[in-house]
């Protein structure tokens, strides 16, 4: 293999890992925000727990989500695909850093999908994006339509599960002593581990799919199977991002939506973990942040809906609509400078 192409592959992997790091910064906050807010764990305890189980999720979960992400791009698997992947991830990284700085709970998944759309569009035209419109008319979800459906349905599913759990447990525990809170806090350690595991399994696979595409484009892989070293690398970087945490986003989720008590946090974790595990099993890439926001809104609605800060929900809705086109635009702007840089090598 040409040494210059190998250098470009290394750059692609490096940018992918930067994206994984920013993804960890974003979604670590979502995983632990509620248990910190209700006093079940200190920030350092919660982040340590989330980091460990996030790494396990990245290593032990299958490749279904990675395969879904990889199928969005219909460009030929050849070295010309590398600047496309670089531009897509560069746009997503820029967006993640901006929203992380301002404490906005946006979706890294939306950002990556937007980056892929923008980079593929400017490099080869919209026909090289697997939109999935025709397949949808025939009753099949694939491509961008599959991703968007997962991103819409998962927060709604989390909201519904959390609402039901909060309603049922509030009735079941209405005569319980206040000491029940200590048990609810202990249970949260188990459920936070499940949520972190599901987050690592779903979110890390997205970047695994990108790296796998890059390796296939230069002939280092002959089939769409994520190598074990890619899993370890992605998991470790996501672990590092989780350790750094996103304290501003954590504050928004833990304190800005509803006044959370242990029962609220536990129900939010159960609902979030269940929704993300199901999505990962089905190969659907989802946003951990948006699922957790949905569950916090769900427990608040079941308890005292008038006390819920619905403005956060509106902000999420606005972010949902602007993230993909905004990142697509940034990625499109990045493509030609990156192509020029590659041609210099």
How would you portray this structure in words?
It is built from 13 helices and no strands. The protein has 345 residues and is mainly alpha-helical. It is elongated, with a radius of gyration of 20 Å. The mean pLDDT is 83. The longest helix is centred in the middle third of the chain and has 38 residues. Helix 1 packs parallel to helix 4, helix 4 packs antiparallel against helix 13 and helix 7 runs antiparallel to helix 11. 78% of the residues lie in helices and 0% in strands.
Helices, by number, come to 13
On the 0 to 100 scale, the average pLDDT is 83
- Largest sheet data: none
Which parts are unreliable, with pLDDT below 50 for 5 consecutive residues or more?
Answer: none
Radius of gyration: 20 Å
Q: Could you estimate the helical fraction of the residues in percent?
A: over 70%
Count of distinct strands: 0
How far is the N terminus from the C terminus? 15 Å
Short description:
With about 350 residues, the protein is an all-alpha fold. It is about 80% helix and about 0% strand. The longest helix has about 40 residues, at about 180-215.
